[in-house]
Amino acid sequence: MTEEGRSAKINYEKYVRLTEKEFQALGEKIGFRQTENRIKRLNELKLKGKRPLEMTSDFQALIAMGPRTVEPIREKEVLEKIKSILSASSSRDHFLFILGLNTGLRLGDMLPLKVQDVKGKKYIKIVEKSTGKIKRFPLNKELREQITEYTLGMEDNDYLFASRKTKKPVQRDRAYKIIKRAAEEAGVEFVGTHTMRKTFGYHFYQKYEDVNFLQTLFNHSSQSVTLRYIGVSQEEIDETIDDFSL
């Protein structure tokens, strides 16, 4: 067994019933990091009594698991940690994260933005590719103040998130890697290009419970699609109602 595989097995073998041979086979098939992630997920299922019974062994259950869906970042202290990490390395990267968290914009829609698109504005206009319609993403008061500070000394035609080398917008893959690296340093395991967008939706819903607004903003076909997208489970909805009375 490799050193990486041995370390992973020491850390996680208590959670599942897995022989050393099975663990090694799984690690060689999907990678030891992905193996760790799947073991954690299976452990969560077992603790909740939701382990798939049709799988006769933990090994089969781990093999059957697909990649985990990107979830919103629910803990605000983790968000603050990511902000701090990004701020220490780059004001550009820090502001990219801030803008994504506070607007619900797609990463691909943020990168081409110029100073003139946000400075002195109360919302950002984005043309929906699927419909050709213009959608407005509101900018809250604190974000408008941060925009003023961030764009100080910049020209109206400057890109908000320009590459230092080309002065053109940072490539989507590069921006994703920047956010992913900071999030992983803060302890977030599953990060995708929609992490900021989903995180915005999740916390907006937690505060206002206005799924209709989010459905419209995200251009979803139904409220149930929106709730799944922002990671709000039926259990969370039930808990909210359980504490509600008139």
CATH architecture of the largest domain: Orthogonal Bundle
- CATH topology of the largest domain: the name is hpI Integrase, Chain A
Number of helices: 14
Going across the biggest sheet, name each strand in turn: 1-2
CATH homologous superfamily identity of the largest domain: Intergrase catalytic core
State the helicity in percent bands: 55-70%
Strand content: under 5%
N to C succession of SSEs:
HHHHHHHHEEHHHHHH
Average pLDDT value?
Answer: 86
Number of domains: 2
Main sheet specs: 2 strands, antiparallel
Pick out the low-confidence regions. 4-13
Shape: globular
Q: CATH top level of the largest domain?
A: Mainly Alpha
Measured distance between first and last alpha carbons: 61 Å
Work out the number of β strands: 2
Rg, rounded, reads 21 Å
Structural class: mainly alpha
Protein name: Phage integrase family protein
InterPro entries: DNA_brk_join_enz, Integrase-like_cat_sf, Integrase_catalytic, Tyrosine_recombinase_XerCD
Pfam families: Phage_integrase
GO molecular function, one term: DNA binding
Give a verbal description of the structure.
By secondary structure, the chain is mainly alpha-helical. The protein has two domains: 3-64; 76-229, hpI Integrase, Chain A (Orthogonal Bundle), CATH 1.10.443.10. The protein contains 14 helices and two strands; from the N terminus they run H-H-H-H-H-H-H-H-E-E-H-H-H-H-H-H. It has helices spanning 3-12, 20-30, 32-47, 58-64, 76-89, 91-103, 107-110, 115-118, 141-150, 172-185, 195-208, 211-218, 223-229, 234-242, and strands at 123-127, 134-138. A two-stranded antiparallel ribbon has the order 1-2. Helix 2 packs across helix 3 (32-47) and helix 12 packs across helix 13. It is globular and about 60 Å long. The protein starts with a helix and ends with a helix.
